[in-house]
Write a sequence for this structure.
C-alpha cells in the first residue's frame, strides 16, 4: 500500500498556506486556494492559471488509508506535480 502521508507531496501540501495565494507553476501564474477543514481531516486545493483556462483541483484526506488523494476530474499525477512544483510568489 502506498503511504501518501510519508511522501514529499504531503510535506509540501501541508506547507502551502491556507487561503488564496499566487504561485508560479510551469512558468505561469496561478491563483491557489487551499482550505484545511474538519480539524485537518480534509485539505482542499483549487488553482487556476491566470493566463488560460487550466485548473488543478483535488481533495486530500490525511486520515484515510494513511493519506488518500481524490483529484477532481483530472489525474493524480497532475495534482501531485502541481503541489511538488508550485512556487509561492
Amino acid at each position: 500500500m502506498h503511504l501518501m502521508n510519508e511522501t514529499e507531496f504531503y510535506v509540501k501540501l501541508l506547507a502551502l498556506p491556507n487561503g488564496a495565494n499566487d504561485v508560479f507553476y510551469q512558468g505561469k501564474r496561478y491563483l491557489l486556494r487551499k482550505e484545511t477543514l474538519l480539524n485537518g481531516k480534509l485539505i482542499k486545493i483549487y488553482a487556476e492559471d491566470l493566463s488560460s483556462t487550466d485548473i488543478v483541483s483535488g481533495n486530500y484526506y490525511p486520515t484515510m488509508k494513511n493519506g488518500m488523494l481524490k483529484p477532481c476530474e483530472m489525474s493524480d499525477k497532475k495534482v501531485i506535480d502541481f503541489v511538488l512544483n508550485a512556487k509561492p510568489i
Remarks:
- Strands lie at 19-25, 28-37, 42-49, 55-61, 68-71, 87-88.
- The chain has one domain: 4-88.
- The chain is about 20% helix and 45% strand.
